[in-house]
Amino acid sequence: MNDHHELGHFDPATGAAVESAAAALIAVWAYSRHSAATMVSSTQLQALLTIERHVEINLGRLGEALGALPSSTSRLCDRLEATGWVRRSVSHDDRRELTIRLTPLGKTLLEELLAQRRDDLSRVMDEMSPSARKALLRGLQAFTAAADRVADQRVDRPDENWALIAGRFLA
User: Fold this and answer.
1) C-beta neighbour count of 82 within 10 angstroms
2) 55-113: per-residue pLDDT in tens?
3) Cα(first)–Cα(last) distance of the chain, in Å?
């Protein structure tokens, strides 16, 4: 059996350090998320991020991406449209189908959330020495590449990358 798949190949201290760093990153991410908490719920944010990723999406695909029933997805879109964050319109390809797109207001909301997240991450990074930042960047690039290789081997949802999964989890 390949050494990578045997128990014990991962030093417990390294595992604890990675878990601690991941928890710190999630905490910074969540702190940024809470700045928008009064404006948008987690479910609404997941929907907005999904719509952004697809640019234009129909109700069925949005519901599938969110793991929601069609009726729930429709009500969610009603609320998003009422806030002015999305616009529903008749599909160009099939007039029986509605598509959903972000409005400029919805795009602005997501841009503000991203800017807040980056600002919060920057504050943390500013507390690190330049050499530590460089080492972290190299380590994160290697970690992401390894995670991508693991994701490519997934059979349950091979079309999802780590950013999509994290976006749903942390929305």
Assistant:
1) 9
2) 899 998 999 888 889 899 999 999 999 999 999 988 777 777 789 999 999 999 999 88
3) 38
**pTM attached to this predicted model:** 0.73
How far is residue 70's CA from residue 73's CA, in Å, rounded to a whole number?
5
Q: How many residues are present in the chain?
A: 171
* Contact call for residues 76 and 43 (beta carbons, < 8 A): yes
Rounded to the nearest 10°, the torsion over CA 152, 158, 159, 165 is -90
Q: b/e map of 22-32 (b: 16 or more CB within 10 Å)?
A: eeeeeebbeeb
Topology annotation, domain 37-118? Arc Repressor Mutant, subunit A (1.10.10)
Domain ranges of the chain: 37-118
Burial class for 87, CB neighbours closer than 10 Å (0-12, 13-18, 19+): middle
Q: Provide the residue type at 28 as one letter.
A: V
With residue 90 as reference, give the H or E element that holds it. strand 86-90
